[in-house]
Structure of Lymphocyte antigen-6, epidermis:
Amino acid sequence: MNRIILSIFAVGLCFSVGQALQCYKCDLCIWNVFQTNVTCNAEEQCFSGVGKAAKFLEIKTKGCLNRNDCNKVTQTTFPSISNTTVYSVNKTCCSSDLCNAAPGLPRMSILHLALATTFMTKVLV
């Protein structure tokens, strides 16, 4: 009898732990340096948002988002500027742990690194 109760408890514990979705979070993502992990609520999913301000400055954001707001474009406005839209962000959702990760940092090739080292050596010497 104790084994049955222990088994039911173990299965219940697995379901309660398995429901907490982990996501990366950053309000303004710059090279994925200032991101943290966050646990979403039951009605939320992970999201990644990408947009452009002034048509050239890329804005990125990550975190948890209510399922009803997923896969939509949101407008950010500043009331002090006559409700002018400053930028739009396309928020895309996913539903597995840490699924809103971004590609790694841009890498320098060996050639770029060698050229930069040569240039810095000539400037500093």
